[in-house]
Amino acid sequence: MRAQDQEQLRDDLDFTRSFGSMPTGFEQRVQFALRQTEEDKTVKKPIFRTVAIVLALLTLATTACAVALSRTTELFTWLGGPDKAAELNAGEQVVSGKTYQLGDVIYTLEDAVWTSEGLYCAITARPADGANIVLIPEDFDVTDPAGYLVHYRRAEEIPADAPSYRDLAEASGAKIVQVKAYFQNAIDPNDESIDGDSGYHELPQHDGSIAIACQFYPANVSMQQLRGGECEVLIHISNHGRALDGSFTDDPFDVFDWAVTIIPEG
To answer: Does residue 233 contact residue 183 with C-beta atoms inside 8 Å?
Structure first.
């Protein structure tokens, strides 16, 4: 939007009170549409045109907010592209936000999605408050630039001066901790006969956290049989210390099988 347009926006409309939090720029687009309508010489058509514009923008805003709610869909869309996005968008989102602290690391199950093919979830691992640690994903070297997706073909551009995991640890006297999280093959803690195949991707983030995308495909039951209202699943989480030379240490070495209850929204 041009600067002169921004200066003429109306200040008598409280969008936050009427519609709640709106995406950045949404309020300006609606107000600009209203101002253009008010300048029109005709009366009836602009009124209906304005209402249509407002409703269309509200629909777009609501859709954008709904999509943004699923971290799972976001991660797997990045990993698998449009086909995976279509599968997850047709699935059923699961509410969570549950956390578990293992040693100095806090694991958060952001959300999950049930589809006809499998169960997917997004987990975030981050240092606990006050913990002097640097998190590193599995299969990364301590000399890799910290927080960058170096092992993916669609990896972002990495600055030449980006510090490595070892650089960060040396600068603050921190311990390097390798984190891991994935669905257990026997996913139901109450029924060990239900098993399948699981996998995961660990994606380092610029804020020092690790985003973990997990998937589970049942082998001896259907997804419909596995799912049923409130459901409890088993997620393996672990921390493993890494020395400055990259070798594994015994401190810390924490392992836990986390039984998490997830509740579908629908």
So the answer is: yes
